[in-house]
Amino acid sequence: MNMVHPSVHPIEAPPFTDGGAGVPPNRSWMKDVQGMPGTPGGLALRFSQFVFALTSLSIMASTTDFIDASAFRYLVAAVALQSLWSLSLAIVDIYALLVQRCLRNSPLISFFTIGDGITSTLTFAAACASAGITVLLGNDLRACKDNNCRSFQTATAMAFISWFAASPSFILNFWSLASR
Amino acid sequence: MNMVHPSVHPIEAPPFTDGGAGVPPNRSWMKDVQGMPGTPGGLALRFSQFVFALTSLSIMASTTDFIDASAFRYLVAAVALQSLWSLSLAIVDIYALLVQRCLRNSPLISFFTIGDGITSTLTFAAACASAGITVLLGNDLRACKDNNCRSFQTATAMAFISWFAASPSFILNFWSLASR
Predict the structure, then answer these.
(1) What residue stretches are annotated with the Casparian strip membrane protein domain (chains A, B) (predicted)?
(2) Which of A110, B9, B50, B170 is close enough to B86 for a disulfide, judged by CB 3.0 to 4.6 Å?
(3) Residue numbers in B near A179 (CB within 8 A)
(4) B40 within 8 A of B34, measured Cβ to Cβ
(5) Could B132 and A135 be called an inter-chain contact, meaning their C-beta atoms sit closer than 8 Å?
(6) Closest CA in chain B for residue A131
(7) Are B75 and B159 in contact (CB under 8 A)?
(8) What is the pTM of this model?
């Protein structure tokens, strides 16, 4: 029986691309942008979004009369959603950092972008609506004696800071999605 | 004296690229996306942003007591800026359509993106702040007898529609900038 004995030529192993879902070589600089999912910067952003949203929620919910204004009730709902979303993505980031896993594949980035877009828009809208009422009470009507203006202002400011921390996550994800 | 007489071979002319500032061939599908600067869709978006911002401005400015609330004054300023910006870009779009000029070079798209981002964020913030006060007056305090609730609501709704028309311009410009 004739058998072919192939000689073995060592060849270079192809680079590891995480199941074909890796970043194409010409876009590899996006890997190093801090703030993207799965980077320490991204985790820091998620953590600050979560902390400021939770602070805003706690301060607003601790006032007795937030229930009287629809905008304040909406702020509580929006920052609750923002804190849940940011906490979930912080956990995903911690997992990705621990197992050195790349989170930059297209469906995942699309999901992050849409989620960030929705939650940050809701948080910003709620913060603006609350700011409108807070300024009306404090500056226009000068009715701070009968209202917890200080708490309303602090909760609104925290919601704005949470939105401010959420925007880079959205912009970086959207940029990364568009530049594929 | 020896001279080389080169024979003339007809070669294909390179495609016209508008002074080197054209869209690279692999991105040429972006040319046809309606809503980009210099397209009829883009002009329609600018025109609707302008019309709704101007309507919001006129309705709010026609009320006698908008001056009492900071948020309503801010709405007037924000939709005035939005209408000026949209009108300017509508004129640029008309010029580009008339002379068949491509507006998609990087510095111009960056300028459009930043301008759209700023004006649409300001319009959205003003609309949300006005909505907060309008809902407070109409639903929470039931004080519509003494206030022009109908006008405030209509002006706020027009500002939201103007923002809604401004968002696709921003998203398409940002996408086009990132995908270069």
Answers:
(1) 38-165
(2) B50
(3) 178-179
(4) yes
(5) no
(6) B129
(7) yes
(8) 0.82
